[in-house]
Amino acid sequence: MTNSLRVFSHYIIVSLITAGVDYSIFWLTRLILPDIFLRLMLSKGISLTVQYILIKFRVFYNRLPTRKTLPWYLLLVILNGFLVTGLIEFFSQQEFPQLVAKFSSELVLYIPNFLVLKKWIFRNTAQSDQHVQLNL
Fold first, then answer.
1. Would you call 82 exposed, middle or buried from its count of C-beta atoms within 10 A (0-12, 13-18, 19+)?
2. Given 37, 61, 64, 132, which residue has the most CB atoms within 10 angstroms?
3. Helix extents (H) in the chain
């Protein structure tokens, strides 16, 4: 298996784990938190934390400091939220059911998100160090 295929397959696994954490927490907290917004924020907050840690250390094996990668990761998450919202609205106007529109929107952005994470946010430390040395 090539390195890129291995990294992408790990990314898929992390995505499935993240979705499992998100939906599990959202479902389980219904017993103690009646407010859907609070449940959603709690489940998303925990699942995004899990995703960040797994992507950084188990997908890209990145050693860049968290202070350099986390802000960019959070910016991507926020931007992705706006893009998914826009795509859901677009697909809904095309008479897609809302759940299908959400899934389709996330699917459209799945590979672009992976590429942004790989090329800019969690770029290979050795390559980034080499890049800096070449620019000096």
1. exposed
2. 64
3. 3-28, 36-54, 66-93, 98-116, 125-135
Structure tokens belonging to residue 75:
């910016």
pLDDT along the chain (136 residues), means of 10: 90 96 92 90 95 96 93 95 92 90 92 95 63 36
Dihedral Cα 94, 87, 109, 46, nearest 10 deg: -130
Q: For position 132, what pLDDT does the model report?
A: 35
Alpha-carbon gap, residue 23 to 15, rounded angstroms: 12
Both tokens assigned to 2: 């090539």
* Predicted TM-score (pTM) of this structure: 0.82
In this predicted structure, what is the pLDDT of residue 125?
56
Which one-letter DSSP state was computed for residue 30?
A: G
Q: What is the distance between the alpha carbons of residues 57 and 10, in angstroms, rounded to a whole number? A: 11
